[in-house]
Specification:
Blueprint (H helix, E strand, L loop, with lengths): L11 H4 L8 H4 L13 H6 L6 H12 L7 H9 L5 H5 L6 H9 L8 H8 L1 H16 L13 H9 L12 E2 L8 E5 L2 H6 L1 H13 L3 E3 L9 H5 L3 H15 L5 E4 L2 H7 L2 H4 L1 H8 L2 E3 H8 L12 E5 L3 H7 L2 H9 L4 E5 L13 H4 L1 H18 L3 E4 L2 H11 L8 E3 H8 L5
Parallel strand pairs: 2-3, 2-4, 4-5, 6-7, 6-8, 8-9
Antiparallel strand pairs: 1-3
């Protein structure tokens, strides 16, 4: 076996070679060195080779080459992957594991909850579903507390999904008397619009306070992450093209408030060809943008005397690169006592719909974080991804008087006197 230093990068022509629609040349970059193993959440949790990046790549190669069938343990190992992409950050051969995983899932039967994808593309319908959930909870038919996933993702959702805060509709535009610094566009995200619209409105008002006109394009849709990571490439590409049209052909920054969405938007060059590449160049994660847009000397923040447990999502640490910006942004707020949560196994287990569809594994990955939060007893838990926020909120629901789970930008808004 060649050492990583002896591995050469394949030519572009080789990289584009496929086997059964799978980019086999990219998979062949993996020399099975094992440097990724200690960084993989599912391998650390189970100790199984099939739950590691190199083990999964070997399964992908066998599946694409027709030597293995898409059934049994192979499906479980590939579906168990949380897609954190921590392996990419340490891979000496620069294996694009996330791209390989998406392609491999396209060769498998789709066992993901299709209704979740439907709700994702129709936030208004999802909003009605959440109101129905609230009614069931009030009637006492489902407990909000529960750690098992018996009955599938729907029963688990009824038990564990945190209820959203009441919020007004998300307007098409936000502005203020201070709006002199130009325009930005807000990518609301389907899950955020349905489940955390109050945060979206707060962020839009914060941007207006900082001097921007904030446009929220009406025709925007799901970023496509659920389809992309389930192997539904055509559906993901269609959603990407629709978002490119919705946001128009200009140079206005597109600000995403969830790092999971940001990660997919930053892949639009691959998903939506030329228009996608132009769109991708405009995408900014909200914490990165706020770090530049907010001058504490020009707009000083009021002190917030509170203890904050900071959760940095996998996508922020390994894909968008916005983890440092989140911590720097929060450190500008006087009075905050910040505690970065150790990632435990490396991932909280949210992983798109993973925390609903593969609940036992998701709960095991979440447990170290819940223990830390219990020991810290913070006033707030902060994260920057909607899926992580929902998973953390569901896990904290049985803690008696759990701390609220907020987006980092919400604390900036509170310090500047902006409310939803």
């Amino acid at each position: 076996m060649p050492s990583p230093s002896e591995t050469t990068t394949p030519t572009k022509a080789a990289d584009e070679a496929t086997d059964a629609g799978f980019p086999i040349a990219l998979a062949d970059r993996c020399v099975k060195c094992g440097l990724c193993l200690p960084h993989c959440p599912t391998y650390r949790l189970s100790g199984l080779e099939g739950e590691s990046p190199r083990g999964r790549i070997a399964l992908m190669q066998g599946l694409a080459g027709g030597r293995l069938k898409a059934e049994g343990a192979l499906l479980d190992h590939l579906e168990n992957c949380v897609g954190c992409r921590a392996c990419e950050a340490v891979c000496p051969a620069s294996v694009p594991y996330g791209e390989l995983l998406d392609a491999a899932r396209g060769l498998m039967p789709d066992r993901s909850p299709r209704m979740l994808g439907t709700l994702a593309r129709h936030p208004r319908t999802a909003g009605w579903a959440i109101k129905g959930l609230a009614g069931l909870r009030r009637a006492g038919l489902f407990s909000s507390i529960g750690r098992d996933d018996q009955g599938g993702w729907l029963t688990r959702s009824l038990r564990r999904m945190p209820l959203p805060r009441p919020a007004a509709p998300l307007r098409a535009s936000f502005t203020s008397k201070q709006a002199t610094r130009g325009r930005v566009s807000l990518f609301a995200g389907c899950a955020s619009r349905a489940l955390d619209r109050a945060t979206e409105i707060t962020i839009a008002r914060l941007l207006a306070r900082l001097g921007y006109v904030v446009d929220v394009p009406h025709d925007q849709t799901c970023c496509g992450a659920l389809d992309q990571h389930a192997g539904r490439a055509e559906s993901a590409q269609k959603l990407a093209r629709q978002n490119c049209r919705a946001f128009g052909a200009n140079d206005t920054a597109v600000l995403s408030t969830a790092t999971g969405c940001t990660a997919t938007l930053l892949d639009y060059g691959r998903l939506a060809a030329q228009n996608g590449a132009a769109f991708q160049a405009r995408v900014r994660d909200i914490t990165d943008f706020l770090l530049e847009a907010w001058d504490p000397d020009a707009q000083p923040a009021s002190a917030l005397h509170a203890s904050v447990a900071v959760h940095l999502p996998c996508t922020a640490r390994h894909v968008t690169g916005s983890a440092a910006a989140t911590e720097t942004l929060l450190a500008r707020i006087p009075g905050l006592d910040l505690h970065r949560l150790d990632p435990g196994y490396g991932c909280c287990g949210a992983a798109g719909h993973h925390f609903l569809s593969r609940g036992s594994q998701a709960d095991a990955l979440l447990e170290p974080l819940l223990r830390q939060i219990d020991e810290l007893k913070p006033d707030f838990v902060v994260t920057t991804n909607i899926g992580c926020a929902l998973h953390l909120g569901g896990g904290l629901a049985g803690a008696g008087d759990p701390p609220p789970v907020l987006h980092a930008a919400e604390l900036v808004a509170r310090a500047l006197g902006v409310t939803d």
